[in-house]
Amino acid sequence: MYHVQDEVSLLRASLAGETDAWGEVVVRYKEAVFGLCLGFLRNRADAEDLTHDAFIRAYTNLHRYKLEKKFSTWLFTVTSNLCRNRLRYRRYHPVIAPPDHINGGNDPAHIVASEDRVNAVRAAVDRLPVSYHAPLVLRYYNELSYKEIAEVLSLPEGTIKTRIHRGKLLLKKDMEKDGVVYNESG
Amino acid sequence: MRVDNLDQALSEALHQEVREEVYCIDRLEERVVAEIEGRIPRRGVLDFFRRMLAPTRGARIGQLATVGVTAVVFLTLGVFLAGRITPSHQAILTPVMASTTNGQNQVLFVMPAPGANSVSVVGNFNGWEATPLADENGDGIWTASISLPDGRYEYAFVVDGRWWGQDPLADGYVHSFGEYNSVRYVGQVGGGA
Hints:
By secondary structure, chain A is mostly helical. Helices cover about 70% and strands about 0% of the residues of chain A. The N and C termini of chain A lie far apart (about 40 Å).
C-alpha cells in the first residue's frame, strides 16, 4: 500500500518511476475506468482488457499529462480513445460467438416478465447506437459535466448535449415498447 | 411498470452493472505494476554492459562518436546505392502530395495488390469508413487520391476484407491489439513527409 495521499504527489512519484505510486493511482481509478469501458463497449471481457490497457497506456504517456489539468479527464480521454480503437477493430473482426452480455440478456419477454427496471434500462442501452454510449456513460456513471465530456471525446459541447438528449429519448421510446414508462428529467 | 426518473434509473443501471462485474478488476493494480516493472530496463544489467564496453565516461563518449560516424557513413552509402538500384516501379510508389490553395493536401494512397477484387483505405481521416482504391489500368497497383488538411493520420488498407496495416509508404507504424496501423504526416506537421 502506498501512503502518499494527494493525487499530484502520486503522479509526480509515478513520473519519477515509483511504480507503487502508479499502483495507488490504479486503485483509485480502476472502477471509474472499468465502468467507462463497460458502458462504452457493453462487453465485460473487452472492458476488462481495456481497463488494464488504459492504465498501461496512461503510465507510458504520463509525461504528456499536464499536472495543472484534471487527471481524471485526461485518464478518461486515454480510455475513450482505446475504446474507440477497440470498436473499430471489432468492426473488421466481428466476434463469432455472441458477446458475453453483461447480465440478464436483452430479450424483451424476459425483461417484462422479470419486471426488472434496471435490466430493462441496461438492455435498452445495449440496443442504442454506439455513438450514444460514451456520452451517456460519462454523464450518468462517471458524472462528468458536459464540458468535461466534450473534452474527453473531443467533440463540441453542443454535440454532447444533443447526443445525451437524443440518447435518452431513444431509451425512453425503446423501453415504452416493453411497457416501461419513464418521465424524463434533467 | 412506472418509474419517475430516467436519469436516476440510468445512473442506477450503469452503477449496478459495474458492481456486478467489478470482481474481474480485483488486484488489477498488481498486474499493472508487474507489467510496467517488466518494461523498465534492468539497470544492473545495462550498467554491467556499459562498463564492459567502456569503463570511463570519456571512453564512452568516444565510443558513441565512433558509432555515430559509422552510422552516417553507412547511411550515406545506402542512400547512394539505393538511388542506383531502385526498381523501375519506385516512381509509382513515391507518395504524391501536392498542396492546393485552400490549405488541403492531395495525398495519394497506393497499394500494390495484383489479383485483388477490392482494396480500400480506412483511417482516422474518414472515420474508419472504407474509401475505395481503384486499379483502372489493371496493373495491380490500386490508388486513391484523398484531400486532407495538415495533420497526423493513422490508416490501414483493407484488401479483399483483410486488414493490411503496414503501408510501405508510411512515415511510421503503430501497433495495437496485435495489428499494425500505418501513420502518415501531412503538411506542416512534425514527423516527416
